[in-house]
Design a protein that fits this description.
Length: 240
């Protein structure tokens, strides 16, 4: 049985402030979990929580992952943008042209996200959190499909996307060229083995799929830090 995507984790200079921002944007519940620290619990079918972890590392370049938030109407898109700006977001220029209909924003710590225009066919079946868009190769899309047991819902021109059989957002990879890696990524996945599973067995399964164990200075911890075939870090938690 495949592991479960437990959380998307943000490294944050001010975890509580960033959690409150995203709680306001997404309308998710702010929770205090003994293992997760500051976390948001989804109010929809997203299927994973968001964790905010303390870090003083500076943000360098664009993140390798960002949210694509959907809109049902132009007014809805404008309302999402206005709410995000009121909560502390700002407009961001990443080279998008004036013809682009989506709006690019950055949260209070500079993490990029997009508010997608209404009528986007690729995200038509998805909820408000339409996609987690990632910089990554076709190979890494295949890896995550097998790692999570999520089917491919797009595989064309070296671009891939997967989605949980239970619905929720898509996870997409844009294919080459990939941005150069400049250090530990600010966003990463936490994976949870099946409740009756074994952490070490899951680590070995992921290595067989192409992952590697990595040392980011984590020391003696009960989770295992790994990297996917593109070098994106993720953690395998202990079952509970």
């Amino acid at each position: 049985m495949a592991c479960r995507l437990h959380a998307l984790c943000f490294d944050a200079h001010d975890p509580l402030r960033l959690a409150r921002f995203w709680a306001g944007v997404l309308d998710w519940e702010l929770a205090d979990d003994p293992r997760d620290g500051i976390a948001l619990l989804p109010s929809d079918d997203t299927g994973f929580r968001i964790r905010f972890l303390p870090s003083q590392a500076p943000k360098i370049g664009q993140n390798q992952m960002h949210f694509d938030l959907t809109s049902k109407s132009l007014e809805g898109q404008q309302e999402t943008v206005a709410r995000a700006l009121e909560l502390g977001a700002r407009h961001l220029d990443i080279g998008q042209g004036p013809e682009e209909e989506h709006v690019v924003l950055a949260d209070p710590e500079g993490n990029e996200f997009c508010v997608i225009e209404p009528g986007n066919n690729f995200l038509a079946e998805c909820g408000f959190v339409g996609a987690l868009a990632c910089d990554g190769s076709q190979e890494v899309g295949y890896f995550w499909s097998k790692a999570l047991g999520w089917p491919l819902v797009w595989d064309q021109d070296q671009e891939t996307a997967i989605r949980s059989p239970h619905g929720g957002p898509k996870i997409t990879w844009g294919g080459p060229p990939l941005e150069p890696k400049t250090g530990k990524y600010r966003l990463h996945f936490d994976l949870a083995p099946p409740a009756d599973g074994d952490q070490q067995a899951e680590v070995e399964r992921l290595i067989a799929l192409g992952a590697t164990r990595v040392d980011i200075g984590q020391g003696e911890v009960d989770w295992v830090v790994m990297a996917d075939p593109d070098g994106h870090e993720f953690c395998v938690l202990t079952p509970r």
